[in-house]
Amino acid sequence: MIILGIETSCDETSVGIIENDKILINLIYTQEQHRKFGGVVPELASRAHLQNLLPLVRQSLKETGIKLKDLDLISATAGPGLIGALIVGYCFGKSLSYSLKKNFIPVNHVHAHLYSTFLSDKKPEFPFLALLVSGGNTALYLIKDFFQMELLGSTVDDAAGEAFDKVGKLLGLNYPAGSEIEKLASLGDENFYDFPVAKLNEKYNFSFSGLKTSVLRFIQKNYPDGLNDETKRNIAASFQRALTKALIQKVEIACDEFKLSDAVVVGGVAANTYLRIKMRERLHPKNCMVYHPELNLCMDNGAMIAFAGLKSFESGYFKTNSITKPFPN
After folding, report:
1. Owning domain of residue 315
2. pLDDT digits (tens, 9 = 90+) for 252-293
3. Is 210 a member of any domain?
C-alpha cells in the first residue's frame, strides 16, 4: 500500500510517502521565523503551513513519480498540537481523500512518534517500553501491540524539550535550544554542578520545572554579572547530565519491573547523542536493547504519520477510535 502522510501539528510542515514500511520520501520544512520570538507563534505557524503544504505535496509526488490515483490511503495529524496548525493539514488531507475517493485516516501525533522506530532498519519487538521526549511531551509507555498501550507516567509540569529551551534561553541561546545545548555540553564539565531533579511519589512521572529553576537560581546567585563561555559550557553539560539521568532512571525501573528486553526513545529530544549513548550504556548490560528512530524521524515528520495511518487501517483501529476532528490536547 502507498500512503501519503501530512504533519502540521506545530512548526514543521511535512509530507511523507511510504510503501508499507519503506519510506519513499519524507520532506520537512522547518519554520525559522519563530526563532526571533523565542518560541512558536501559533498564527504564524498556521500561515506558514498554508503556504508550504501544497508545494510539498507536489514536490513529493514529482520526486517519487507517484500519481494521486496511485495513493491507497491519506493520513494527517489530528492532534495533539496547535489547533490552527492542525486544521490546515487535517482539512487538506480530508479534502484530498474525499476528492480522490480514498480512505482518510486521522492520526494521533503521539502514536506516530511511538511507532516511528518501525521505519528504521532495526525494529523493537512487542512488548516494549517507549520513552517519548519532545518539546511538548515527556511520557513513558508500555507498548503491547499497535494501538494497545499503557501510559505509565508523564511530566507533571515541563516537558524535557521545553526544559532544554528554557535553560538555553538562560544561557543566551536561540530557540530551539536543544541542539545548541548539546554542542555546548560536549565541551563542558558535566560534574561542574549537581543540579537537583524533583523526586515524585508517582513512580513513573517526571518533573523538570524544578531543574530549570535550579539552573536559574544558580546563575543568579553565582554569576550576577553574566556568564563567560566556559561557564556556559559547564552549566549546559551539568544540566544535560541531570535531565538525562532522570529519564534513564525511570526507563531502567520500568524495564526491570515489566521484564522487557526492548526499549525505544522517540521524539525530538531522542536526537540527543548524549541521551542515546547513556541510555545504551545503562540498559544494554541488563539485556535491554535500546532503539531510536533515524534523526530525521525524531522530529515531527510526515512519514511517521503515514506509517501510523497504515497501521490504524490494517488493524481497524481507525474504525473504533473517537477522532472526528482536530484536537489540541
Report:
1. 2-115+297-320
2. 999 999 999 999 999 999 999 999 999 999 999 999 999 999
3. yes
